[in-house]
Amino acid sequence: MWRFLETVDRRWVFLLVAAAVIVPTLLPFSVPMPISNSTQSAYDAVEALGEGEFVILSLGYGPSSLAELQPQAQAVLRHCFRRGLRVFMMSLWPDAQPLGTGALLEVVESDEFLDPATGRSRLQDGVDFVDVGYRVSPNTVILRMATDIAGFFETDVRGEPLAPLAVMQGIRGFDQVGLVIDLAAGDSVDWWILYGNGRFGVDVAAGVTGVIVSQLFPYLNSGQLRGVIGGGVGAAEYEALVGAPGDGMKRVSTLSVVHGLVILLVVLGNVIFVRQRRSRGEAS
Amino acid sequence: MTLSAEIGIWIAAALTLCLYSFLYRDNPFYKFAEHLFVGVAQGYLTARTYFDGFLPYVWRPLMNAVGAGDGPAEPVEFVVIIPIGLGLLFFARFSKGHAWLTRLPLAFIIGTWCGINIPAMLNAQIFQQMNATIAPFGTMATFGETLKVVIVLLGSFAALTYFFFSVEHRGAVGRVSRVGIWFLMIGFGSAFGNTVMNRVMLLIQRVEFLMQDWMGPLIVQRVVGLFG
After folding, report:
1. Cβ contacts (< 8 Å) between A135 and chain B: which residues?
2. A85-127 pLDDT per residue, tens
3. How far, in Å, CA of A227 to CA of A219, rounded?
4. I need a surface site. Which of A250, B1, B61, B103 has the fewest CB within 10 A?
5. Residues in chain B whose beta carbon is closer than 8 A to a beta carbon of chain A?
6. Structure confidence by residue, pLDDT tens digits, A192-238
């Protein structure tokens, strides 16, 4: 058997991983969902805001990180709307805008916010939320919007002038912003920490992909970030906190099976490596 | 579902399968999907840059200045002219005699970039991080908090020692830098684990798409029905 394992074609491993994904997808099950401190902090930061406060949801991701960040976006938006917060959505990546608009529409038009009398959503564009779309150069955008948000963006994605909208009333710059939540697959969260928090003192929380979550924990410890939602597991945790199971919670059970397989394969690979090294030592 | 949405799903499914075919071995289907992706991504980025950058910040101000724009004629501002002029200098690269002119916009970009970023980075990534490493010593109340701040301080000191190359890593310095390597390895391990999670999530999302959106709920329902 060891001989077989030492020479096994790596494509068998790919097939095993595929099976570990496909079977739980067909036969879903639930796993316990303990909440990490970092996700709880992000949730608490939103929870601490009063009704009507202004939240900036900044999007810095694209289709390649949709699996992790789209469920985060939906869970965060749902939480904000439940709290009666005003949501200002903006995109710092060119391909983030359609994803953000999709997440926004899905939440706004969900049953939870439906008015039974009219059959339409209670949440109104320009009153409860506004989507201003994409602007080029993330750091320049953050610096320029700091003191005059409506003056910099001028219009929303519909082409409506921003300043007269009800959602913008009483809002000039970062001084009036309750919280910035940056959903990022790249460096946009760095710009928010450097300029939004470092220079203008606005509170920032982040939802990021698993790839970059580790490098953000120092900012969480130092208080430069109010919370960090980390990857797909973070999305599932936030969904559990909000009480609205979505794609995050659905995927985390499959993720557990694949992680179990990966750990098993890593251990097996190391055992094979040690055996090979020993046998080489004995031979020499 | 509309016909266009249906066609979109079929194209996305076919391209997904083309890309995953690389797991078996390199092949023309994979190459096709890869090249198509690069081309589409670049095309999308170029179009967005044109509509979100060139039109609002270059073309419309200039057209309004000469009275040919959508809005009322208004004098062009110097703050618009200067970056346009600097940007145009990049095209000097196409002339051997004038290629040196590209240094001017490059110098401007590097200069402003450093001027804006260096103080901000020093503040956010050095001073505030140093403060966060040392300040908790004054406020730690429980054994857990004490242990945490001590580990953070030791880890920072040991990792920094590893990157301190002015002294040979022997004796006490060598031992501390070895501890630094362990801390770095734990950090890399954490980053690697999270990266695996990220990649697996992408795979799960694609498999969900193939099995639920493309192959349809029919198969899913049949299998679920089989197992109750």
Report:
1. 52
2. 999 999 999 999 999 999 999 999 999 999 989 889 999 999 9
3. 9
4. B1
5. 23-24, 44-45, 48-49, 52-53, 116-117, 120-121, 123-125, 128-129, 131-132, 152, 187, 190-191, 194-198, 200-208, 211-212, 220, 223-224, 227
6. 999 999 999 999 999 999 999 999 999 998 999 999 999 999 999 99
